[in-house]
User: Fold these one by one.
Assistant:
Number 1:
Amino acid sequence: MRKIIIGSRGSDLALWQAKNIQDQLSGLDVESEIKIIKTQGDNFFSRSFSRLEGKGFFTKELEDCLLDGSIDLAVHSLKDLPTQSNPGLQISALSDREDPSELLLIHPESVNIHEVFSLTARASVGTSSPRRASQLLSHRPDLEIEELRGNVPTRIQKLRDGDYDAILLAKAGVKRLGLDLTGIHVEELSPVELIPAPGQGVLALQIREGDIQLEEKLKRIHHPEVEELVGVERGILSRFEGGCHMPLGVYCKKESGKYMVWACKADNLETFPDRFYLAEETIEELSQKVYEKYTQTTQRINSVFITRELNPGGYLQNYLNHKKIKLEGKSLIRTFPIIHKMDSSIFQNIDWIFFNSKNGVEYFFALHPVLKPDMKIGVIGRGSEMALREFGREADFVGETSDTTRVARKFSKLVEGKVVLFPQSKDSLRTIQNGLNPELTKSIDLPLYETESEKNVEIFYSDLIIFTSPSNVVSFLEENLIESGQKVIAIGKSTAAQLREYQIEPNAIPYTPDEMGLAEAIFGML
């Protein structure tokens, strides 16, 4: 096998990626060297990225060098590579996928954990990505988005220097470079919370067509399972004919035998993005189905009733305002405390506290508990997490799905050999406790409050009813009927099970039991 010339950009991250591939080739007894190529994107660090024209800002020159034979292999970040292949070139291998999450890095003087994403009001956030900016503004419209250029270490230094209150970066780059984030507040945003760029975290190995010898070698480091999933993501991008300027995020994963896709698209930074979630048994035509949802939607829902008090200015309210859908809300149950004083000695041997509802958080902290400094806290979802922030605490674990069985499975790995306290309602279903291994984890129930149905609540007719708990289902159906043509969303599996006891099949169960999950489910019904 001849000596291979690997083409790479000159940034620290690009060189790390090229050296990583070089090491893998060495393991296949392939000798190689790295040649640095400067690209259009590297030449315009002082110019707004959104004003650069065309596609392939970080790839075109590498592709030109492949075609003229001055290099044999180009290592790209897949998310930078246009979806249409350059004639004469081919992608012969994809790397394993690094975590595609985003990191929101916040200057220590700009942290306020009481706010969404722990950012102070009207904070300046540096990013050159319309996709990141669009999604961030959908949660925090008060933020100021500012252009951010430079390689990853340079961007982090700009944050340390106080040029920005916060910056958004891909976790993959920070992790690969092993960068020191000491003194910086880090908020990790999962790929189902802030949806990444198609192919984020994956390296693409590009060669000339007809280089059979090198192609055969690269097959040995190719990851076909990654190719399958990012093929869906890039298929959606291709159908939109989108590039780096389009506020489009797409993420696909396979879980429990299903292919799950999240997409988030806005027309521009002034419009609220539409989030969509789709789960299918087969990957066939998955990209086309997502594309058709965005391009063939008709408004079939004009009013929504949710069985809880409204969250003014929250994500769901803002999204439905954008869609011109009327939202009414009223809890059909009331709660009252059954413990009025907390004995702090209860925490002496407790390692974790887990909250399975917003009410649990509020009733617990209303008792002014004195917690150990090293006490860890888990919450069922982002709604409970936001309630926790109101009391100045951050969660060490946040459930990401409305399937409490999956949440319990993931949480159980963290609490083996630990003691977990569960502040909850007197009639809690104990779904998380039931999912823990009692031989490995000790759970202690702490009933704090009771619930009972509210009587004679005025219910607003709506095209869609969102049920937020099993008890709200019971309370609603004690005095009301689901009318013909009304659609129903159940916030989670236990709520769906309660509906089925009344022979009502919910039209949707959102993947996440929060306002973003509800927005995804509603868009899927339009």
Number 2:
Amino acid sequence: MCPRMPAQAVVPSLQHLASSTLCNTVLEVFHALHTQEASLSTWAPSLHSLLSLHLQRSLYQELVEEVLLRLDLVMASSPALRPAVRLLVPALLGPQLRRLDFTRLRVVADKAIVRSLYAALPQACPNLQHLTMGQSFFFLPELVSDLDTKLAQMPRLTSLSLHYIATDSILTKLAVHCPNLIQLSLKGSGKVTDECVGDISGCSHLTVLDIQGTQITGNGLLEIIDHCPQLAWVEHCPFNCDSDFKIFKSRQEMLDLIQKGYLELQAQNNRAVNSETPPTDATGVVKTQYNIRNFWLFNPKSEELLISLLCPKLEKMRLDFVFQDMTFALDVAPLSTFKHLHTLDLNFYDNHRNPLLFKILKTCGLRIKTLIYNVFADYRSIVDCHNIIARTCPNLTHLTFIGDYRVEGQEDTETDALLQSRTPDFQPHPRLEELKLGGYCTDGRLVWLLAGAPNIRTISLDGNLEQLGDGAWTRILAENSMDHLQSVWFNTSTKMSMASIHRILECPRVRRVGRLIHLVEHTGGARRDNLTQLLEKARRENWGVEFVWVTPGPILGGTGEGDPPLPHI
């Protein structure tokens, strides 16, 4: 059995206690009236008036979110209650509401509810600051055809996310209607083109822009960047900017702008290369420099890597490689000029090239704290990549390694033996805080990564976990007590048993463990009583641990029947 853990559940705040109490009261009345449509129709408006007049803003926001979360479960488990839910949900909107997200819950995916909520905007929520719309409207494009007139009445918006549904007409006069916008996401909105660039460019306070999946070209993006001096983070796709991402008017213009700087760089000594002096043209005029912090290049040429000359504040770089389309050798030396780079996202889509990985990381690895490496190759051929990363990125705190796979007939022990031996003088990732492993996970691979990582907080395992067993956790915890560990997540079937869960619970700060259905004795969903016993023990001893059976639940220590919240832009 699991050893006794100290009580560690967080004491809820007074506001949270008040919110939970009010939520329970509201839902008790709702369930009592749900069969009486006339009574419910009268009670809902009175509830709206009561909450709007008497609740402090932050309490109101928390209460609405909690009620919506609970109604989400009601609709999922009791379809017969949907008509009653449709009457209640619109009554929850009010002037204190600052955030409204139409994408997080199933309750707002109901077409009737979506229509009523949309109709109430913005009169019911005149002080809204964060609005997210997307999946709920994806199949109702006619409903949002007048969204521009709605936005015209929401001048306080600072964050607007229109996923998959935005059009050029919706964004008409956006800067006039929403002058305080700081974040704008148009992700997946394929009908957005350069026609709206002028409207977006007027949002001079923008710091975050997501145009992935739109038709905004390199020309359009350059115009936006030129007119939004505070814009720092641009999420984009290299294939929706004229089939090749360009932060400039054309690929050739970018090459022309930095070619001279590239040639000059070759002639300068290291001191000049590393100086903070901005690049100048032949007349001595300082070239345009941008505030951009992230950049994405596909099959980059060496001179394109010199983007640091024009974006000196660059912090994150994504490099995508399809080697069958790459007919040139890459000189990675320009990566040494990135003074602020801390995040590197590398994608080797069609093969491994370990020597290229080594060259890239040897050049800039000392600065990297977050590395995302996606490689399509078998585990045996890429196992040495772990050695490369450990040797060249000693300051790594976040590692994502995904895409590799198992080849039948290869001995795991022989492959794991290729990992550089851990010694008192060499531990692979002593500063690691987060590990995401999405390939073929063996016991030896996991032990090698974690046994010497005392600061690890989050472990997320995906991909092929069929050979991952209890022995890995026994060996890891024999060397590393993982005192900071908070979350362990395994996304597919494993050889792990409940014995591994008991060992993980020995870590003093664990708050979340799942998915328990993927334990070996739970194949086919059997023996759910293990979950029931853990939940009961956790409640009795006040552990404060969320045990997830299938999907994360909304309540700490709950049954795990809910859906995980989606991240905000």
Number 3:
Amino acid sequence: MTTQDQDLRHDIRPLVQRLGKPPQDWRRADLVDYCLAHDLRVLNFHYPSLDGKLKELRLPISSRDYLDRILAAGERVDGSSLFPGLLGSGAGDLYAVPVYRWAFLNPWADDENELDVVCRFADKDGQPCEFTPDNMLADLSARMKQSVGLELYALTELEFYLILERLDERFTGRSQRNYHQSAPYLHGRDLADDILRVVSEVTGLVKYCHSEVGYIDRLGSSDPELDGRRVEQYEVEFDLMPIEDLACWTAVTRWLVRVIADKHGQSVTFVPKLDEDMAGSGLHVHLALYRDGSNVMLGDDGRLSPEALQLIGGLLDHAPALTGFGNTVAASYLRLVPEQEAPTRVCWAERNRTSLIRVPLGFDVGVRLDQLFNPAEDGEYPPPASLARPTIEFRSPDGSAFTYLLLAAITACVNDGLSRDDTLELARGLKIEGNIFEQPELLARLDSLPAHAVEAAEVLRQHRAFFEGQGFSPQLIDIVVAKLEDEDDDELTEKLRDLPAAERLKRARSLMHKDVHKH
């Protein structure tokens, strides 16, 4: 048995095991033959829309000819409903065309008799629709590879709160002390285990699922679904993958998490903030540059490479405008506050959670970590490249982001950083050491991120020429700006700090809880 055969045999994804080949090698005939041989009854098309949620079209598998046809050419969908304001109703027809490597067996169908596949959009001429975020991201990725010979890989840390029925008083946790908690103090453990299992079997790219810092034993709210509930924060973190694949699987995972919570009779929210002084839910994005299959984030001296610094410089240069894509609701800006491990200033640092961009700890430390505590270990140690895989972490985005659009905007900024000489010095000039909130002079010279959604709209409006030059349509920028302005949170956010504590908490919760199920 070859090494590849062994890898496939132990792959956690059922469809990979059934087809006996990796997803990038799947062809239409593989899917057709499998569906017919195993008597599958339904084919589910999934695709994103402008509200950030994954949509679904269920297609019965009634014959070989029909199955072959819909997998080959997809199906018509109403683009004006999926992307209102972006595609007019007079020219709104699109083709949803399946991407074979994004197929998976439906986790809940009886006897695994349904196949799901994520689609991309084609226009009336049979070309990638240039206005939809999936194709914007793909185009920006292709342009980067063509212009500088680099590919952008990424992973997300997807944070969320499980909203749980409060059954009794046993083993209650402590506020803000839930990081990596274990049962019996972890009350959503069964639900989280299902999330870990299902998301791993669908994507094959999960690093881990764990409880995060946030824990509220009895949440106060005017929303009856939230009031008095126990809420626990969790995180699913992926492994590095091409950024186009990440957009797909992050959107799929948000859908999977919601379905799993619903099947447990519980609820879940990705909203950026649920209560004052409690951990918010971010969508941290780790990025790495690859050339010819090799990670180039570090130079031979073990320090960040010039390309990595240009990547950082491109993100920092456009960071305030990026909040318009990554932080889209009023609650986002109640998360981006000092001393909450959420960024507020434009800077970067090594292993520092007060900075906007962080360089996390790597695993290639020049010694064998396995022998450090297992001195008898004498097996072959993994090569440094497979251990280290260095990244930088962009920390401002949160669960309100539409993943495809956010990742397209990030790719545009990285592209810009790599194409300019000045971003190298820009990055070097914005590196910080220590806690910026303990250094008043440093804090004063660093630019701030927007303080509320209305300010984010204005910053994006001022910055729109850059994004339009990168392929974002004027209509799309108008939609994003209008959504931010509709939050109408500028005066309220400014007034919150001056209100009495009880009134401030009430008003803040009204902002935070209005979007519990929108994102």
Number 4:
Amino acid sequence: MILTGDLKQAFKSYITARSGLYFKDHNLKDLEEAVTERMKTLKMSSFPAYYAYLTTSKEKEDEFRELLNILTIQHTYFFRNQPQFRVLRDVVLPEIIAHKSLRGRTAPEAISKIASSPSAPRNDTDRPSLRIWSAGCSTGEEPYTIAMVVADVLGDDLKNWDAQIIATDASEEALRAAQKGIYGPSSMRNVNEEHRGKYFDKIQNRRNTQYAIRNTIKKLVNFAYFNLMDEDYPAGFDVILCRNVVIYFELETTINVMNRFYSSLFEEGYLFIGYSETLQFIQDRFRMVSQSDALYYKKIPPGMPSERGMEEPTLPAEGKLDIERVLEGISRAEALAELEAKPKKEVPPERFEDILVQIIKAIHLKEYGKALRLIEDAGRADATSSDPHYLAAEIYINQGKPREAKKRLEKALELDSLFAPAHYLLGCISVEQNELGKAKENLKKALYINKDFLLAHFYLALVFKNEGSISNAIREYRNTVRLLSRQDPQDIIAYSGGFSAATLASVCRDNIERLKLEQV
């Protein structure tokens, strides 16, 4: 079987479009190996047939999860994103425990919806309850980490609480591995000696060393199959962790999932999501909290004003937000961020801003034909602007057409040779084509023009990472974080595709954490 260049790029473009920024550092060899593995499992012998299955079949969402599981499993380990677990231990759990200790037990609601397995959580009415949901638990490192944190916080008082972590995933293979609770050294990289001795049994054999979760922790976790595409979500949770899962979904699906999480949480509940994910599009329902390098969200109870002074929105009967309204808000924020990044003397025509908003909105919806037609309108509204050419280049990159993208960026630079975003995007294309020398050259040009162009620092870090220059990569990620710290956490970053400052900072911190582990 030979995976041709065009089809390989089609797979890459599809995964990049579906999963966003976080997976752009996977090279095509990793992708080809993952695709081949899935084809063997499904007993398929044709790459085009598998691509059609992945992108158009009724099983496409489950299959996408299976493929992404293979690509991401190397990044699954205990205490991943340590700042989030520190906040869970030091802030969130003590607050919940204090409230429940004062008020008495709050009965869990509807947990039985996903608890039909033999390990279903007990319904203990004599003790206060603590319910945490690890949604998309993969091979179990996350829920077992949560259980360790719960055991640390409650200590000897654990026996007086009805504490349960509900761990779900749509991969039955991952769940079987999680239930075994046996892990290799890679999963243990962030586990300190105290936790190793307290919560694990070491299994030494001739070939390798493994670690088995002890029953004191195992009994706190209940594993069950659950697909986030289902509509009937469980409820009654104090905390939900769903990290690096919704990046697999289209925007509309993500919004619907987050709305269901909102309903699944108690009124004072908390939500933890992944590094590359953001709730900017439903911030009327969750309040972003940025604390001690951790990013997480607190539910805004119905009727309470959000940070923007708006009441929690009334949803239609089916519980869905108006996608058009949501995308309009995101797109306008992106357009304004890009226009504000220009020199103050450049004031575009009033109509230009509205066209730019509609272009960005169409790109989010992957309506690329419509976006390209609007780009022609933008060119007529302001023939001196480089932005329409930049956005056209983004579309061609998403479609796997780097040659066309480069042509549009050259046009952008003909209009303005000091247009830093064009040099930056040329650098991104070179990264994708593994031309690291060209990538470095273009990214440094962007930084020469604008030393504070933080996305150029971000992608320069990726270049150094791919070259194996770990210390330089860490330096550039730190430069990115430094520049992001000057902005409000919820500010949309110009030319980032809609990422907020807080979200991009979290991505950088995640990469710094992983790179430090590679240095050891």
